[in-house]
Amino acid sequence: MVITKDHIGGLVFLCLSAAYGFYTGDISMLPGDEYEPFNAQTLPNILAIMGIILSLALIVTASRNAEDRLSLKGYDFPIIIKLLTLVVLFSFALEWVGFLISTIFFLVGGYWLLGERRPKTLIIASVPFAVFIWFALSQLLDIYLAPGRLITMLFGG
Amino acid sequence: MLEGIFTGLGTALMPFNILMVVVGCFAGTFIGMLPGLGPISAVALMIPITYGLDPSSGIILMAGVYYGAVFGGSTSSILINAPGCASTVVTSFDGYPLAQQGNAGKALALAAYCSFTGGTIGAVILLFAAPALAKVSLSFQSSDYFALMVLGLTAVAAFSGKGQVIKAMIMTVFGLMISTVGIDTMTGAPRFTFGSVDLLDGVSFLLLAMATFALTEVVMSVMKRQHLEEDPEIDMAALGSMKLSKEEVKEVAPTVARSSVFGFIIGVLPGAGATIASFLAYGMERNFASVKEKLKFGKGALRGLAAPETANNAASTGSFVPLLTLGIPGSGTTAIMLGALIAAGVQPGPRLFVDNPDVFWSVIISMYFGNLVLLILNLPLIPYISRLLAIPRPILIPLILFFSVTGVYLVSFNTFDIQMMVFITLVAIFLKLLDFPMAPMLLGYILGGILEQNLSRSLVMSDGSLSFIWERPLTLTIMIIAAVLFVMPVITKLLERRKNSGIKATAHHGEGG
């Protein structure tokens, strides 16, 4: 039997809908709410049932052509992982070293990951840009950008 | 009313307010063009500035930014397939294929003309019909809203490709599931938060839209890098002609007229907005199209570009009706404006006519100016805007990533949202590899909250009976339209199949005879 994208997608959503339906029972309700025509669990229950029915329908009507098999050839997955890790690191850096420094590091990191190696380009395309954005946000638009916990600890608030 | 119009003209034509319109449109276009920064972010960024201004000038500036951002968003949708804002997601469906075919100039010009026409028609309707329209939207009851949301969900068929109806329906349900995360507005019960404080407010729409469109698109383009390098580079910097032929104008004119009125009406309804209007207008236009024309949708159809572009601007104008006349925000962006107005000491609502006629009418008049400024400003700027594409991809991609991420961060100032974006992007990449469409999920998410609230109210009012569907003529009519729209693709397919088999049978008979 050929396992196609439809089969995988159907199975994934079947599991998701079942898990969603399972956790629907965890939604707390006020006393007597279960007798109301509509409560916090009503729509989630309907959605879980609809999700299960549609997932089964997808599995049953799934294409069985070999061409529809999931092919991961030609995709550069490591670069995705690196880029998304950089975004996560940026989110942590924002908290610790503030907007300006984390933006510079994020941009330099991004350019580097995508193949830019010239130090001059790395600096020119990141530092003035980050300073301009920081200046526009914090000085022109008066938006408070927290300096970062590390900076506050080292230099005071 | 005439007196009010003159008051509005007097205020809107003050040199400082004209400057505010120009500055707002320019800043909005620039911010909206950057993927990740949409009208919500752009208008939110203006709030600190408006604190120092007169309320009329403040809201005129924000309205200019709003229009500019909606238009700017369509530019990035067309040129780099990364919608600057949610209301221009649909623009990329046909705008980007047009750009890839070497018609970027035509697509951008069409977007500018449609935005202008949609916005202008919207402003004219608003000028003459605002008070009456407020009454109409007041007469809508929960059951009508519920039916309207169901009608909205039937548009899902428009976003599904060949044989993808079930996948599109699954994604709609998935979007509805995401909309249930967070505190239930009816009972206050936390749902699917798993004890996380950050999930109590649910998943923000901006976050979801940016993660599934901007971030995922950018990341997928990098993922296929090797593949792209093997292909001949598409010369996107060559815009092609910006002129539209007479036939093309004739083709899109009815679409523009329909979408202007339709977009405006959707914009007027509280809770709906430019995003819903653009999705619905696209769905409606596809349903109106002949079988042959339908095949062009998603591959560079001019009507597919004109419909959402016209509707989102008309809806942006329409969304000011509930804001100004009822004090109810028609969209996320107008909700921010409502907050800013209240902070400035102006309470939008039925008494705004009486208490602050200058604010009410000057906003309406400046909307027309805003659209004019956008057209004058944007058409000559298109060749310069396209230069963005000349930036090398290793430089442009991190910049787009940065704007997408900070656009979400600057709304909430919560780094958890960035981590959430990464998670959603990973899920979206997986789903895209499995050929699941993303737009139905967004549609389900947008309509989910309103659908649940109105279903709940309708059921409570009818003691748990579904009779509210057929008891109110308006509800029943909308439900019948929804049912027809939902069944239409299936019927069309069956008719097509019968026609094809008929042709084959005739051909076979001919051969035999």
Automatic annotation (TrEMBL), chain A:
Transmembrane segments: 45-62, 74-90, 96-114, 121-141
Keyword Calcium part of the UniProt annotation: no
UniProt keyword list: Membrane, Transmembrane, Transmembrane helix
One Pfam family this sequence matches: TctB
DUF1468 domain span: 8-145
Keyword Transmembrane helix: yes
Record protein name field: Putative tricarboxylic transport TctB
From TrEMBL, chain B:
Stretches assigned to the DUF112 domain: 18-443
Protein name: DUF112 domain-containing protein
Transmembrane intervals: 12-31, 37-53, 65-90, 110-133, 145-162, 168-187, 199-223, 261-282, 323-347, 359-382, 394-412, 474-495
UniProt cross-references to InterPro entries, sorted A to Z: DUF112_TM
Domain of life (superkingdom): Bacteria
Origin species: Marinomonas mediterranea (strain ATCC 700492 / JCM 21426 / NBRC 103028 / MMB-1)
UniProt keywords, alphabetically: Membrane, Transmembrane, Transmembrane helix
